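Annotated sample (chain length 257).
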Amino acid sequence: MNEVVTKQEDQAFHIIFNRPERMNAVNEALYQQTLDALNHADKDPEIRCVILSGNGRAFCAGADLKVHKSGERTRDEREAYIMLGQRVCERIQTMKTPVIAEVHGYALGGGAEIATSADFLIISEDAQLGFPEIAIGTYVGGGVTLRLPRLIGLRNAAKLLLLGDRITGAECLEIGLATEAPAAHQLKERTAALVERIVKNAPLSMARLKAAINLPQSPDKLFRAEAEDLLAIMETSDWAEGVAAFAERRSPRFEGR
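Output written by the structure step:
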């Protein structure tokens, strides 16, 4: 059985974690297949949005502690496993295509790192998200030591990381971690509504804006970098189409060129 399944619906590409018997706990195969799917999606100009979700009772329950407990990995194998997880989160954060995490059930440890890496987090109000690493004597990854304080502030990040608190989807929304926190039965509906909005936008502009907000320039470089991005966008067909559509009072038809 594949650890990850994918499907494309028009301009949306779904990456679905598929270890329901282990609550989609991560292992090497799940990480590698997720990374392969992300790379595929970002190379396809027809794909305008990626949605991450999980089969079964959870989005992703984090590391497969059953494998960790076995103690069968060598040091090199542990390093390879860790770097695979890092590469997945890095790819989500740096790829051109916007990524939505659609979370139900649990997003813990590595699952929370993946969810936090996404550009948009749609989490059911009763789902639970947390970083339990501190309580079991391990450590976080996925760039959360930088990304989480930027998203929710240092005090809230300290509660999640240093105390290992779990919070509900509703609480994620309150502290600014989630984009939306609908009732569980509305989760897919709300994700679909967000996808519909994203795919209508200009993909070249979104790619540059995503890079700008995820990897900010130092202040002395910021204004020049923004100017260079704007100039590059103004030379595209999509920019001309957006201007024409506004003048003609119609919806633009962006082609990604």
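Annotation: The chain has two domains: 2-197, 201-246.
Annotation: Residues 201-246 form one domain.
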